[in-house]
Every structure is written in C-alpha cells, then in structure tokens.
Amino acid sequence: GAVVSQHPSWVICKSGTSVKIECRSLDFQATTMFWYRQFPKQSLMLMATSNEGSKATYEQGVEKDKFLINHASLTLSTLTVTSAHPEDSSFYICSARRTNSYNEQFFGPGTRLTVL
Amino acid sequence: QKEVEQDPGPLSVPEGAIVSLNCTYSNSAFQYFMWYRQYSRKGPELLMYTYSSGNKEDGRFTAQVDKSSKYISLFIRDSQPSDSATYLCAMSLIQGAQKLVFGQGTRLTINP
Predict the structure, then answer these.
(1) Do B32 and A6 touch (CB under 8 A)?
(2) Of B40, B39, B59, nearest in space to B48 by CA
(3) What is the tens place of the pLDDT at every residue in A4-50?
(4) Is there a contact between B104 and A93 if contact means CB atoms under 8 Å apart?
(5) Which 54-83 residues of chain B touch chain A by CB within 8 A?
(6) What is the tens place of the pLDDT at every residue in A79-108?
(7) Which of B92, B102, B103 sits opposite A103 (nearest CB)?
(8) Per the CB < 8 Å rule, is A46 touching B92?
(9) What is the rounded CA–CA span in Å between residue A101 and residue A78?
(10) Which of A74, A96, B6, B51 is most buried per CB count within 10 Å?
(11) Dihedral class, residue B59 (left if φ above 0, else alpha if ψ from -120 to 50, else beta)
C-alpha cells in the first residue's frame, strides 16, 4: 500500500513552453500533497503544499504564477511549470500524506525536467 | 545556519560493517523524525519514523533520537551492497503545516 506515482518520469522541452507533471496516490486518499524540487547532489526543497479543493501554499521564494498547482481530487495533484527556462531544469518530486495521518509522507518516483 | 545539518559524505564501508548516519538540528520544536533512503534518480522511501526521543529498531535498522542534544542517528547493521544509496534525515513539527525539513543527505556505498 501507499504507492504514489508521477507522470511523466522525464520530460525534455524547449524554453518558453509549459510542462504539466501529475502526482497520483494509487491506493489511498491524500488530502494533502507536497511538491519538492531537488538539484543534483542536494536535498529536497519544499516548493508548495497543496490541499484538496483549496489553493496551494507556496514556500518563500517560489513563484506561484510560474509553478501552478492544482489539487482537484483526493488522489491527484498537478504541477505546471509555465514558460519554462533552463534554470527550471531539475528533479521534481511529489509526496502525499494519507488523510488523517499527520506526518507520514509517501513519495513519488520523481520527474526529471530538462529545459533546452 | 541550516535548520537540519547532515554530513553529505560520501561514506564508503565494507560489506558487513555497522554504519552510523547522523543529523543535528537547531529547532527544538521538532517532534517527528524520519529517515528516508533514496536511490539514484528515484523518490525517497521511508525507512524509519520516530516520535520524540528514544530508540526504534526495525530489522537491521535502528533509529535514535536525542532531543536534549538535538541529534538523531540511523544505524545499519550487517550492511549490504543493496544498502548503497543516499540517506536523508527529515523532521517536522508536532503541529502546523506538517511540512518536512530535510537534511542534505549522506551518500553511502557498501563495498562487496
């Protein structure tokens, strides 16, 4: 149990285009999902917290107009990187927290984004 | 000063050795402490989850939390080559947004 999937697993796009990444909890309901960014050999940095049916809460320094998050159901959250640039190239990882569970987060396999 | 400090390594040990991984932190309000294992280009996998101070054992893995020293450890006994990965400590507050704060991660290699 507690499986989280991400799609796509990797994507290459041209500068200026938008990319959507999906995060799904496959066998549990997740009221809250988190989006992280990870640069090579560095730790995960939280970008935003997304709650089902409400607006996401962004961490300081993260542009909410650039990284659009939608959490329309208890099993799906999406991150859209708008007008992507090479500096947005990174490993994006989502996690999902079971409804009524405070601290156990289950992570997806990540999406590697390369912007040319 | 980072909220959570973790020696990035790399750490290389022979198979069968006991491995000790550590993190220190500055925020005494942290109550939940976790260890994650991350293989290259994969998402982190939860290994151990502890609340407040004390020890927790699961198979070859033991997690220790010393809140008075703001210090947590993960011990791996009888280490195997398959244990080669990056190990991340993470912690969170008892209340609030429940967001995790991660250490930098320690790259561990177990040599056959």
Answers:
(1) no
(2) B59
(3) 999 999 999 999 999 999 999 999 998 889 999 998 878 889 999 99
(4) no
(5) none
(6) 999 999 999 999 999 999 887 776 678 899
(7) B92
(8) no
(9) 21
(10) A96
(11) left
